[in-house]
Amino acid sequence: MAGVHEDFGEKIGGAKKDLWKDRGLYADDLEAMNEREAEKFVKKDNVWKKPDYAAMLEEGIPLGVVYFIKKARDGLNASPQYYRTDDTPEKRTARQKEYIKTVRELQTVLSDVRTVEDAMRAYDRFFVDNGYLEKVQGWVSGIHYRATKKGQDNPVITNKLSNTMLIRSAEYFERNFTQKAKKEQFCVSKEQKIPKGYAIHFNDGKHTYSKNDDWKPGTYYVTKGYSILRTNFETKEAALKWVQELAKGRNKNGKIRFVPPQLAHVKRTGPDYRNGVEITGQHYLDTFGFRGGEFGNWMNQNDRQTSLNMGFEALKDLASALKISEKDIAYQGTLAIAFGARGSGNAAAHYEPLRTVINLTKMHGAGSLAHEWWHGLDDYLGTKMGAKGMLSEQPRLYAPFQKLIDTMKYKPETPEQAAKRTEAQTERTRKNAASWLDSSVLASLKRYGNEEQMETYAVLREAFLSGEPGSVGQISAFKKNVTGRVIPKSERERLEIFERMLSRMQAQEAPQIGRTETDFYRNSVRMGKECEKDGGYWDSNVEMTARAFACYIKDKLPYTSDYLAGHADCALTLVSGKDGEMEVLKAFPVGEERRAINAVFDEIIQDLKREQLLTHADVTLPLSVSELREAADGQLSMFGVGRPSVMDQLAANRPADKKSPAQTIFRKNHEPEI
């Protein structure tokens, strides 16, 4: 029944609704994963969910014991470690299963630890009972531990883990776990935690004093290191509130994560590819050759229908813009698509290379389809070209991609820029040359020479800095005449290099045109500094090419297709300029830079067609008559029982009504306006 939309095609797998995330990862779960997924998901936190340490304390488990459990868990590597001999997928999978099994073994042991005595027995229960260590009776030292072959072959068994869990005495436990937990404010709530680096003390009046005798006994004071920041707080709570506000102000970095704005309306003014048909998942399989499709469990049928309709038209627009076969949209059957099924934080949309699937969220995803489709193509071409990941990360494997990266990041200098750069380079060279010359000659001349000889040196020095050939030899001879010593050979050779460099600079009639960074690249770097914690996302080849491609598609289409590329020009924010005035920072290409980048995209698409990785198609056709009939057969409306069927709607429309292009508007109630 066309009116009810469920997941279609091949099961994609790996969606949040299908994962093991609630119960944790077991070795058997690897059977359903491909290599890239296993590499990503086999992590400690996925195998053994982070325990609720605060709940343990509420159950009555001592602070030091809970801290011991945490430190023991922290002693595990965050992910599997591999030996050099783990050089095949089968061996890496075996190592991943071993990692999961070992983590589970430690989890089992620590889940029974409730007292200090339990903690002291945990070492033997994990290491000895599982066969990683054995107890050996020594001649003099008594019983000690020795690693077995099983322990030596398992990279999870480390000295860090062993040293953490080996408790020598109750006093050792008190010092290394209970006291450290208190010092680190372990499990103290955020509201009660003293900021790192600060401390709150009580003034008992016995060991404190002040010059003006204004430090009241029975109050609290705040320190940072050896510095007293403020005194005379009546209560500890008052001191805590003050220091938290102080630390908050000093640590504030002002960075705000960029989230693409939600489009108020999703407009489209292109050809009517649907002819009023309500699109189904089967249309995606038949028209584009998608591997499969998914919907989020929380998406109702209206949401699903709207997403299917708009996505279908947008993908048709994409094929039209690139003049490629519709089957190329799914990269010859390797791509899957999801609507709201695989959301990731605040992301409007994302591409998953692990499962080669594009996900678009119900609302924010509108406008990002072209951007995410490029990520998929980037990944697909990377596989074809032998890259380890996206092709844009290894562009030298494909010359057109290298040209794209170069064009995005660099552009030819203007004559004015070249002149300014050349002048600055010449000045730096002259300054360095003068410094080397003075260090070789000046000290001895001042010692042995007179005022007239110093004036002569100044003339020779200026000739050298002007690049006059033979000037170094003249200065060396002059130095010998005055001091009895020539410039040493090694220093003279360095000065002769400077002499040749300066001579070439003087002989150059016009500055050579070099290259400078594009505004697109500079703004992307700055966008990262403004909106990222660590940087490296906005100015990465992967993201810059995707943002540029969305702009390219928007420019190629002679009409509006918001669902496809409505976010192309939205990567901007307000920043403070050097003069303190607010300015708009655009992290997408504009103007002449955009035209140059678009030209390279044209070259890439044409070359991919020549290499038969894409197929040229002059025309993108609407649904055929047979498809219309199949869609209309038994179709039920999801927008109310009173709505006419598709065939009734088509029959009611006169040919004259079809002269204006179809438009789809995504309203607040998520229903399309037909």
UniProtKB/TrEMBL annotation:
It comes from the Bacteria. Coiled coil: none annotated. This is Large polyvalent protein-associated domain-containing protein. Residues 413-430 have a biased composition (Basic and acidic residues). Signal peptide: none annotated. InterPro entries: LPD1. Transmembrane segments: none annotated. Residues 413-432, 653-674 are annotated as: Disordered. Residues 531-611 form the Large polyvalent protein-associated domain.
